Amino acid sequence: MYLIGLTGGIASGKSTVARRLVEHGAIHLDADQLARRVVEPGSTCLQSIVDEFGQGVLRPDGTLDRQRLGELVFRDEGARARLNAIVHPAVRELSGRLIAKAEEEDPQAVVVYDVPLLVEAQVDHPFDLVVVTSAPKRAQVKRLVEERGLDPIQAEARVDAQVSDEERRAVADVVIDTGGTIAHTMSQADALWVDIERARKAARERPSG
């Protein structure tokens, strides 16, 4: 199995790169989706969040009110750290199981694990490659305004709340510049796939022991 950690700032083109790699045959795991799964009604993770933050973070139907919880932790670093201490280990455990399952089903699988908080959460799966998508701040803000309907001040706050691009680049094996056109981003993802295939072929041909 070949395991890729894909990370980058908000609206930095991660999903575009992930989608392209899936078109080439990769399996995609999305940490945001896994974070939703671990807090489904009845989960120990959701109960821990309610114990920590109160019943007010639940909707009437018993599901997590993500917007309400987000408002509680967005500007409170201590609260955010307490939430992360509940959610991150649960996501780590689930992602580990899904990665192992993918390898069991196909030992030659290429798995792209899309982790927005790879740096912040100190995700330490044994990645063969860490790929960082990088766009200028103005491009990220513009996308958040135009594609997600945020107002410019909100959008800027969201970008500023994340770790810096420099910190992400420090852990990167490959940086994909997503500040230009989608075609430019796609062509870099295509080139990355060629490199991955080359690395996998070399690994298969390497004599063992």
UniProtKB/TrEMBL annotation:
One of its GO terms (biological process) is coenzyme A biosynthetic process. SUPFAM superfamilies: P-loop containing nucleoside triphosphate hydrolases. Pathway: Cofactor biosynthesis; coenzyme A biosynthesis; CoA from (R)-pantothenate: step 5/5. ATP binds at residues 11-16. It is found in: Cytoplasm. It comes from the Bacteria. GO terms for cellular component: cytoplasm. Keywords: ATP-binding, Coenzyme A biosynthesis, Cytoplasm, Kinase, Nucleotide-binding, Transferase. InterPro entries: Asparaginase/glutaminase_AS1 (IPR020827), Depp_CoAkinase (IPR001977), P-loop_NTPase (IPR027417). It catalyses: 3'-dephospho-CoA + ATP = ADP + CoA + H(+). PANTHER family: BIFUNCTIONAL COENZYME A SYNTHASE-RELATED, DEPHOSPHO-COA KINASE-RELATED. Catalyzes the phosphorylation of the 3'-hydroxyl group of dephosphocoenzyme A to form coenzyme A. Belongs to the asparaginase 1 family. Belongs to the CoaE family. HAMAP family: Dephospho_CoA_kinase. This is Dephospho-CoA kinase.
